[in-house]
Records
---
Amino acid sequence: MSYDLIVIGSGPGGYVCAVKAAQLGLKVAVVEKRATYGGTCLNIGCIPSKALLHASERFDEVGHLGALGVKVGPAELDLPAMLAHKDATVKSNVDGVAYLFKKNKIDGIIGTGRILATGKVEVTKADGATEVLETKAIVIATGSDSAPLPGVTIDETRVVTSTGALELSSVPKKLIVVGAGVIGLELGSVWRRLGAEVTVVEFLDRILPGMDGEVVKQFQRMLQKQGIAFRLGTKVTSVDASGESLKVSVEPVKEGGSAEVLDADVVLVAIGRRPYTEGLGLAEAGVALDERRRVKVDAHYQTNVPGIYAIGDVIAGPMLAHKAEDEGVALAEILAGQAGHVNYGAIPAVVYTNPEIASVGATEEELKAAGIDYKIGKFPFSANGRARAMLQTEGFVKILSDAKTDRVLGGHIVGTGAGEMIHEIVVLMEFAGSAEDLGRTTHAHPTMSESVKEAALAAWTKPIHM
Ligand code: FAD
Ligand code: NAI
């Protein structure tokens, strides 16, 4: 069988690239080694974690309804039902990808792909049978997997990565999370809400590196109020799993402090993810990797070997599903002879905790480091009528604009619905809009989004409601 395009990996990068390429008239196959399509995101990432985040948030909310005059008894947890909801959510999403393949006449092939040479992909099926497929172009969209922590053996039951943390059969009494990044805070929140005592051990002296420092500081206080404890500037050196309770050795990153042993029922290791390229035959095909073992590509996603391309978590850039998807679309357009492109300056990032934290564009730290003269507009949800009505007054919107041109350079929100609200700033930045543009845009009243408008007014001139 000969194709225009074979995509290896069916995550958000791979499946979206395949669908777009098929829509543009190319003959496409997708090779996936997992039993279902959708990659990390749909099977063990974005989708199951959001199902548990939503369910655990509703569980937690029951305890706060009294303030709204709604009397209910204490919430009772049915963990198997909550996990079943998560599994059903995953199933409907991965089935959706299989449907999209059918609809777009894409050949979905379950098997492990290996690049033999330009234009040749070998597929090994579960029963060991192999076949060689021919194609004009190959796209590597093999994603990433969890980074290991030296001294710690993962068993996915008691010492887990995010995959095991989505499957715990009971609520741990004590959960230690290693890494205060996105996974650690999201999944730490899930189990905290369901009753676990959660301690997050972070190497750096701050949480969520890369996000705006001021926003993150306030966010950390909110998480602490919810009962999550932080050990910053601390590293885990080993986990002893020989006894009934796990013994977690931690020590300060700075020299001089003393080591300590903490007890835990479950340890979640969430210290980042690394590109997944094992068994792909890249070395034999001569495909170059960068210093962090990511596949090196040019501005058109082509590797150093003509006809072999790569997108998503396996190349440089933020490891986000929507970044992978948009690269998939851009590459499909390029392969179909069109001009595909991704605006890396306007990729939103959302942490789906309660409240959410969302950001796009530059942080204050980045603007300072780049020597750019900027203005800050901030507006707290405590001054927003809708937020007061919903008792969701925690957090604020922060808009950063160019001091000379008024162009919006970054937007950061911590608060209920931040992950939805951020998109008006994303669109504004996509169109190179100014704080004045946003401040003059009519926003429906009463909405949380009015705080975005007010923050823009604060950056451009003055807010009305503060
Ligand atoms: P993947 O989704 O990793 O897909 C790669 C696929 O390639 C896999 O299915 C793999 O089996 C397959 N594969 C690998 N090698 C081969 C081979 N040789 N042959 C055949 N198939 C192969 N991002 C967000 O934007 N929002 C979120 O809310 C979010 N939540 C997350 C939560 C968790 C717990 C995790 C772990 C990640 C989360 N992410 C989130 C990150 C997101 O999942 C990734 O950025 C995204 O999945 C990357 O897409 P991809 O297509 O590059 O790769
Ligand atoms: P991360 O890179 O977000 O955070 C890892 C954290 O671990 C960092 O704070 C880092 O300083 C810390 N760390 C590293 N080594 C350590 C050590 N030895 N001891 C203690 N702390 C250590 O990585 P994470 O949370 O594993 O997520 C991986 C990727 O998945 C992220 O890049 C993220 O983009 C993506 N993701 C996105 C989500 C979203 O968009 N909502 C949700 C979950 C994951």
---
Amino acid sequence: MKTDVIIIGAGAAGLMCAMQAAQRGRAVVLLDHSKKLAEKIRISGGGNCNFTNLDVRPENFISSNPDFCRSALARYKPQDFIALLYKHNIAFHEKDLGQLFCDDGSEAIIAMLRGECDEAGAKRFMNCEIEEITYDAPKEEGAKGKFNVSTSRGEFTAASLVVATGGLSIPKTGATPFGYHVAEQFGIPIAKLRPGLVPLSVAPDDWKPYADLTGVSLDVTVSFGKQSFRENMLVTHRGLSGPAILQISSYWQHGQPLHIDLLPALDMAVQLDEQKGSKKLLSNYLTQWWPKSFAEAWCEQLPGIENLPLNQYNDKQRKLIAASIHDWQVTPSGTLGYTKAEVTCGGVDTRALSSKTMECNEVPGLYFIGEVVDVTGQLGGYNFQWAWASGHAAGQAV
Ligand code: FDA
């Protein structure tokens, strides 16, 4: 079949790109090997899809080329996507920190995008295995090349090919390294891949005191380098999770400790000074903020300091306890990997792409959008906003 645009991957970015391009009157074919449409949208945000964030800035994205995302994000804003939800009467609400979720399930977002694509005339082929991509380079300067895509559902040919196959996380949703392989085929570099927004593990021997405290949740500030996040942290059997840890995991580097402020709202040096005469045991005193089990386990681990009544500590010890509360250092042994990660950090090197259109500088007509690109959002709706914005940028250009 001859068409104007072939998009591989009918997830968030692919659907947005298909809709934009088809609305411009382009003949669009959308190919996906999955049986079901947009599985990651379906499972996102606990089933209610955190589809964007009211406060989107370039600083919310991680990339080896941090300015790359600016142009696309500036041209497709959260308000543009929100306008689509109003058009389709989809109810939504703001949770914390500007995060917008559907009221009645993420299926509404899938139905909306599918409806927009269908109405604009984009053709969709699901359950479609991609076998081979070949490229006929243009015969003369200024002419366009041609991409030929062989699939289990036939041959497709177009001057524009958009790769929107996402990252590696949660393989059971249909995630594959396909997009990275296409980049390699065309000589486009890949920024190192690693799981992001992922729980972290700690070596079993180091974690013994906390391994049985699964489910304990604390409001903390966790820092790594210049990044810090104040959110909840969850103790798990294997290490740490919860929003604060997922956020910092995208920045964390192997072998380095995380710095965790366990009581970020307080000045513990002052608090402990006020308790100089108290006969309360340190761990009991801390239970006004922490679950007893965590307070006891944490006090047992204090280096060179026993869990004693507060009036038995000297000034130096009180200072040390306060400093340890505000800077609990945990060195993870690793992450729980792509089966538990929400995203893949790294990806198609943005230096090879136009920030306005997502087209490859050296291969005219070839585009990469969404998570397959080396732009990764923080937790909070940013990854979908990148999928919408990069899909829109390419959809306007193909
Ligand atoms: P996406 O993964 O959506 O789509 C890729 C498509 O390509 C899929 O349909 C797949 O089947 C297809 N494909 C892959 N390989 C192929 C091949 N070889 N041949 C043909 N087709 C192929 N983000 C956010 O902003 N808010 C949230 O609430 C959440 N929640 C969330 C929860 C969970 C559990 C996960 C795993 C992830 C999130 N995310 C999120 C992240 C978000 O889902 C993700 O960043 C976007 O879906 C990326 O959109 P893409 O279109 O790039 O890839």
